[in-house]
Amino acid sequence: MIHPFSGFNKEEKGILGISCTCHFLSHMLILVFPAVTMPLVASLGIPLEDVIKICFLMYLLYGLSALPVGIIVDRWEARKMLLIGLAAMGAGLVLAGFTKDPRKMALSFMLVGIG
Asked: Alpha carbon of 40 to those of 62, 85, 103, 105: distances in Å?
């Protein structure tokens, strides 16, 4: 059996490893919100529909920023953009974890979406 990466050199394997890992982390971090929806209802003391409104802009910005970020990556350094994106997503989630204010939480999740 031929290994699927046998034709890749070391640098190409490194690029593939980094880009696949970042792609996985991007989708994993954006899917944190559905996992914490019900605990947020309990901790914020607001109805489920209001909690869902908090994350709307995160998903909207996640989708809308894909094309401009892709263009920027083509013209700038992809590695730096990956690191900036993951840092923004991580910072947004950390900020969201430290706030109980729904508006600040929405802003934090917007940072996750932009990242």
From this structure: 21, 25, 13, 10
